[in-house]
Design goal:
The protein is an alpha+beta fold. The protein has nine helices and five strands, in the order H-H-H-H-H-H-H-E-E-E-H-E-E-H. Among the domains are: about 40 residues, no CATH class; about 90 residues, RNA-binding S4 domain (Structural Genomics Hypothetical 15.5 Kd Protein In mrcA-pckA Intergenic Region, Chain A).
Length: about 220
């Protein structure tokens, strides 16, 4: 699987609309601003006022909803997401298609930067990468969707080490739980991809199998 040659990602042109409204429709607080008390209060009021008009959701609607949750959590466009699904479908694998899709999404550079704690959200991670603050194998990159592989080395570009986005990094990362497929040294500020993301549907809030049920219709 080759690396993307594109210098900029289509995510910049993806307009989401009101995040509270989207999160309520999906039934999941997938955005950082919806993981707040303010959102919970608005959700309670909305649920109370809409109880009389609630309808049973069809299986198709449920699957579409789960697909949207996954797509918007990782912040990719419909076209990008469809491409990832097609890649997962085209791979001969013993781990299964949902696991392949999960690994493709988790292996994006912006997601890895977020997982390492170098950015508070995936959206912030995409901006950090797009602005050229990150290196992969000692080369500056500005492609958030870049696919990472085992052995890849991630670093902060020398000219960006004092950038405001990385201030207080030691304090931010001291209690950070980094997934087992990544490692990071606070002393050198260098990260490494040490394996593949491990897929365990029982521990995830996102329903990856439903994504393939949706696309198999």
């Amino acid at each position: 699987m080759g690396r993307s040659p594109r210098g900029q990602d289509a995510y910049k042109y993806m307009k989401l609309g009101p995040k509270f409204k989207i999160a309520r429709r999906l039934g999941s607080p997938i955005f950082e601003k919806t993981q707040t008390q303010k959102y919970q209060l608005s959700l309670s009021k909305k649920e109370e006022s809409g109880k009389r008009f609630r309808r049973a959701r069809s299986e198709y609607a449920r699957q579409h909803n789960e697909k949207q949750k996954v797509r918007l959590t990782y912040g990719v466009t419909e076209k990008q997401f469809h491409n990832y699904v097609n890649k997962a479908l085209g791979v001969k694998s013993e781990v299964g298609k949902p696991a392949e899709l999960y690994q493709l999404l988790e292996s994006r550079l912006d997601n890895a930067i977020y997982r390492l704690g170098l950015a508070p959200t995936r959206r912030a991670a995409r901006q950090i990468v797009s602005h050229g603050h990150i290196t992969v194998n000692d080369r500056k990159v500005n492609v958030p969707s870049l696919t990472l592989y085992e052995g890849d080395i991630l670093g902060i570009r020398k000219g960006s080490e004092t950038a405001g986005v990385f201030s207080g990094l030691v304090e931010k990362l001291k209690d950070r739980t980094i997934p087992s497929w990544l490692s990071f040294s606070l002393e050198t500020r260098v990260g490494k991809v040490s394996g593949k993301p491990a897929f365990d549907q029982t521990s995830l809030e996102l329903d990856f199998p439903s994504v393939f049920e949706f696309y198999s219709r």
